[in-house]
Design brief:
The protein is of the alpha+beta class. It has helices at about 10-15, 85-110, 145-155, 165-170, 185, 195-200, 210, 225-230, 275-280, 290-295; strands at about 20-25, 30-35, 45-50, 55-60, 65, 80-85, 120-125, 130-135, 155-160, 240-245, 250-255, 260-265, 270-275, 285.
Length: about 300
């Protein structure tokens, strides 16, 4: 996971060193991360130097400073070290160009060693004390020999990080089918397991390509309304339930809990009705509870 700020110490003492906190955005990710500040006149668009789990990085202030008393997140804050200088900005540009060359070197070395890894990105820390390569791989990769070769060519500390397809989408970003930036690239910190049962619970057509996100896996947003659907469905009979209208038997074949529309069918007819209206006209056949005692005798 792309955790820029992993310090989770949220004690009052830890935060009391700051007057404000501010959102910082990095060139490597569209997400915004929060850092603490004290006695720095920060404004949106300012370039600043911060220390992340990766090392020293150049970031851009993406929000107005907010009073530290309003900070309620569980994750602790690291400080904005200082305002960036022209030298810092030039170094960042040089590092970005050097990262392109370093990525090609790493790809070449990996191919020579026959390693099955798909390199995604390369980043240098601002002081070039470390270079981080991110890659996709179906299995664990033994890259000890690769590390030796890269160290001899790049002359800095090397870090190789295996990521998943969701992490790749988070790093690259994009626009979802809702028209908004991807959740993973904006606010999601962790990826929950998303199963097809959530789509079934929401009575969606099981069309895997349409239910999949940019990462190729089931969309994370399937979890957002899952609880609401489960709660609303308690007010409706199960699909497959039998009912009679004017002594004619029907079966419930579809329910839209949002609109309250229910589809009932038999061999000769199909009807769409509002559930509240259906309850007034229909007699529902109650399902018999299974006779566990007789089943045990059988």
């Amino acid at each position: 996971m792309d955790n820029i700020n992993e310090n989770r110490d949220t004690s009052i003492d830890q935060r009391s060193q700051f007057d404000h906190y501010v959102g910082i955005q990095f060139a490597s990710t569209p997400r915004i991360y929060f850092f603490g500040s004290k006695d720095l006149p920060l404004n949106p668009g300012d370039k600043v130097i911060v220390e992340t789990v990766k090392g020293l990085e150049l970031g851009t202030v993406a929000s107005e400073p907010i009073d530290i008393a309003k900070y309620k997140l569980s994750m602790g804050l690291k400080p904005v070290i200082r305002m960036a200088t022209d030298v810092d900005i030039r170094l960042s540009e040089i590092n970005r160009k050097d990262a392109v060359s370093a990525l090609e070197i790493c790809r070449s070395e990996a191919e020579n060693l026959g390693l099955q890894m798909n390199l995604i990105s390369c980043e240098f820390t601002l002081d070039k004390s470390k270079v981080l390569f991110s890659y996709l791989a179906d299995e664990r990769v033994d890259f000890r020999e690769l590390l030796k070769n890269l160290a001899s060519r790049l002359h800095t500390r090397i870090e190789l990080r295996q990521i998943g397809s969701r992490d790749k989408a988070k790093m690259i970003g994009g626009i979802g089918i809702c028209g908004l930036p991807l959740c993973c690239a904006t606010f999601l910190n962790e990826f929950d397991g998303i199963s097809i049962s959530r789509a079934k619970n929401q009575m969606l057509a099981i069309n895997i390509p349409k239910l999949s996100g940019h990462c190729g896996k089931l969309m994370c947003c399937l979890k957002y309304e899952d609880g609401a659907y489960s709660e609303m469905k308690k007010n409706y009979p199960e699909i497959g339930s039998k009912l009679f209208i004017n002594k004619v038997e029907y079966t419930i074949t579809n329910i839209n809990v949002i609109s309250g529309m229910v589809k009932i069918e038999n061999r000769e007819d199909a009807k769409f009705m509002q559930f509240e209206e259906l309850k007034k006209q229909a007699y529902f056949v109650k399902r018999k509870a299974p006779n566990t005692e007789n089943d045990e005798k059988k």
